[in-house]
Design brief:
Layout lengths: L30 H10 L2 H12 L5 H23 L1 H5 L3 H4 L1 H4 L5 H29 L5 H18 L1 H28 L14 H16 L18 H29 L6 H8 L4 H34 L7 H22 L3 H30 L6 H4 L12 H14 L22 H21 L15 E3 L5 E3 L3
Antiparallel strand pairs: 1-2
Helix pairs in contact: 1-9, 1-11, 2-10, 2-11, 3-10, 3-11, 7-8, 7-13, 7-14, 7-15, 8-13, 8-14, 9-11, 9-13, 10-15, 11-12, 12-13, 13-14, 15-17, 15-18, 17-18
Length: 485
C-alpha cells in the first residue's frame, strides 16, 4: 500500500489503516502529552469518578487513593501500546494481525469496534445533556445529534485536527475543571463530605478497576495517534509523554467526579450536579464539557471507523481505503450510535457501568498478548507487507497460540467477574471484589509468552527482510527502538 504524494502536507488526513511511510512522518513526542491530557478532561471520566461514591459507597479519601492507583497501573499498559506506534506506523488493530493472524484478529477488532461505538454513544448522551442544560429549550435528543455531528466533522478531517484541538483542550479544559472544582469548594461543601461512605475492600477494588479500565480502554487505539511520529523517536520518550499526559488528564476529572458525587448527593446526573454545585460558574462548565465531549468523542468515532475498515479490508485485501472511505464509514457509525444513544439516555449510568465491566473482561487478555508479543517475543520486528497479505503472510490467517491464550485469559476471569450480567462463584468468598482483570493479566501473559516462544523456536523468520521495517534494537528502556542508521 503506497501513499499519495501530497498526503503529508494535506490538512485532511489521507491515510486510514495503511502503513505511514517515513517521509510522511511528522510531529513531536511532547504532542502526545497534550493529546492524552486534553482528551481525557471530559464528562465521561467525571461520571466514572463519581461512581466510587455513588455506586460503591466509598469515602472521599478511599476514592482518591483508588482512583490514583487505578490510573497509575492502567496507564502503564496504555502507554506501552502507544510506544508501538512510531516503530510500526500502522493502527493498533492492524498490528494485532501479527499475533492472531489476519482472520483471527477479527475477533479482537469486532470487540474494539463495539467498544468504540459504545463509548461514542455514551459520550453523545452527555453532549445532549450538556447542551440541554445550557439551553433547556433544546431537547436532549437534539443535543445528542448536534454533538455527534461535531465529532464526525473532526473525525473526517482526521489526525492533525485531533492533535491540534487537544493542544487547546489541555489549557482550556485543564484550567476550567480546576476552576470549577475550586468554585464548588468555595461555595461550601456538605458537613458530612468527609464522613459519607466508608472503606470496603470490595468497593475500593471496584473503584480501582474502573479507574484502571479507563486507561485500558484506550489500549486498542492509543498507538493510532503516535503512528505518524518519526520512527527514530525513543520508545521511552513516547511512553512517558503518553503515560503522564493520560494519567494526569484522567485523574483530574475522576477526582472532580468524586467531589461532585459527595457535594451534590441528591442526583445521579453528575454533569447536572456539577452545574448546580458550581452556581454562576455552572454554564461555563457546561460549555467546556460540550466542547470536550465533541473533541473526545472524535477519538471514539475515529477508532470505530478504523476498526470497521480493518474488518472489510481483511476480505478485500487489494482495497486501499482513503479519506472518502473514512467519511462513508463515519456516517454509518454515526447513525448506529445515534440510535443506541437515544435508547441509553434514560438509564445512562447503569448501562455505562455494565459496558465498562464487560469490556474489562475482553480487553485484558488482548492487552497481555499484544504487549508480550511486541516487547518480549518479536521485540518490535514485524514484516509490514505480511500484515496486509491476502493469506496473512508469515502470520497466517489464524494463530492458534494467541487465540487459545486469549480464550484461556477470558475463561480464568469468569469465576472472579462481578457484574449485573454475571457474577462468578468466587466473588462472594472475596467479599464481592472483582479481581477478574488482575487474574486475566497474571495468567494470560505467561501462558502466551511460554507458548509463543516454544512455537517459534527453530522457525526461520526474519522480520528485518526486504518487506519489513528497518532493523530494530532494544533500547535501555527495555523495548524496541529503531536504530538511527
Amino acid at each position: 500500500m503506497t501513499a499519495t504524494p501530497d498526503a503529508a502536507s494535506s490538512s485532511v488526513e489521507q491515510h486510514t489503516i495503511d502503513h505511514v511511510p517515513e517521509n510522511e512522518r511528522h510531529g513531536r513526542v511532547r504532542d502526545l502529552f497534550t493529546m492524552w491530557f486534553g482528551t481525557n478532561i471530559a464528562p465521561l471520566p467525571l461520571v466514572t469518578g463519581a461512581m466510587g461514591v455513588q455506586v460503591f459507597h466509598q469515602s472521599f479519601w478511599s476514592c482518591v487513593v483508588a482512583i490514583v492507583v487505578g490510573q497509575l497501573v492502567g496507564g502503564v499498559f496504555m502507554a506501552l501500546h502507544s510506544a508501538q506506534g512510531p516503530q510500526l506506523g500502522v493502527p493498533q488493530m492492524i498490528q494485532s494481525r501479527a499475533q492472531f493472524g489476519s482472520v483471527g484478529a477479527l475477533l479482537i477488532v469486532v470487540v474494539a469496534a463495539a467498544m468504540y461505538i459504545g463509548f461514542f454513544a455514551s459520550n453523545i448522551v452527555l453532549a445532549g445533556k450538556s447542551l440541554h442544560g445550557l439551553a433547556p429549550s433544546v431537547p436532549v435528543d437534539a443535543g445528542i445529534v448536534l454533538g455527534a455531528l461535531g465529532s464526525a466533522l473532526i473525525c473526517w478531517v482526521g489526525y492533525r485536527l485531533i492533535h491540534t484541538l487537544n493542544k487547546i483542550a489541555t489549557w482550556v479544559l485543564g484550567i476550567g475543571i480546576v476552576a470549577g472544582v475550586a468554585v464548588v469548594v468555595a461555595r461550601g461543601l456538605p458537613e458530612d463530605f468527609f464522613t459519607t461512605g466508608s472503606f470496603t475492600f470490595a468497593g475500593w477494588l471496584a473503584t480501582v478497576s474502573l479507574s484502571a479500565l479507563w486507561q485500558l480502554a484506550f489500549a486498542p487505539y492509543v498507538s493510532d495517534y503516535s503512528r505518524y511520529l518519526p520512527r527514530t523517536v525513543r520508545t521511552s520518550a513516547t511512553f512517558w509523554a503518553t503515560y503522564w499526559g493520560s494519567c494526569l488528564g484522567s485523574t483530574l476529572p475522576f477526582l472532580a467526579g468524586t467531589v461532585i458525587g459527595l457535594a451534590a448527593p441528591g442526583t445521579d446526573d453528575t454533569v447536572a450536579g456539577f452545574d448546580s454545585a458550581a452556581g454562576p460558574f455552572g454554564p461555563v462548565i457546561l460549555i467546556l464539557f460540550l466542547f470536550s465531549v465533541i473533541n473526545h468523542n472524535a477519538l471514539n468515532l475515529y477508532g470505530a471507523v478504523l476498526s470497521l475498515i480493518t474488518i472489510v479490508q481483511t476480505f478485500r485485501t487489494r482495497w486501499t481505503p482513503r479519506q472518502t472511505a473514512r467519511g462513508a464509514v463515519s456516517a454509518l457509525v454515526l447513525v448506529c450510535a445515534l440510535l443506541i444513544a437515544v435508547g441509553l439516555s434514560s438509564d445512562f449510568v447503569s448501562n455505562f457501568v455494565n459496558l465498562v465491566l464487560v469490556l474489562l473482561v475482553v480487553l485484558v487478555p488482548w492487552t497481555a498478548i499484544n504487549l508480550i508479543d511486541f516487547y518480549l517475543v518479536h521485540r518490535g520486528r514485524y514484516a509490514m507487507e505480511d500484515l496486509f497479505a491476502p493469506d496473512g503472510g508469515r502470520y497466517g490467517r489464524f494463530n492458534g497460540v494467541a487465540l487459545a491464550s486469549y480464550a484461556i485469559g477470558i475463561a480464568v476471569q469468569l469465576p472472579f467477574v462481578a457484574t449485573s450480567l454475571f457474577t462468578g462463584p468466587l466473588v462472594e468468598p472475596l467479599g464481592g471484589a472483582d479481581l477478574s482483570w488482575l487474574v486475566g493479566l497474571v495468567v494470560t501473559a505467561p501462558v502466551y509468552y511460554v507458548w509463543a516462544r516454544r512455537s517459534s523456536e527453530g522457525s526461520a523468520f526474519s522480520e528485518a527482510g526486504g518487506s519489513a521495517p528497518a532493523p530494530t534494537a532494544v533500547s535501555s528502556f527495555g523495548s524496541p527502538r529503531i536504530s538511527d542508521q
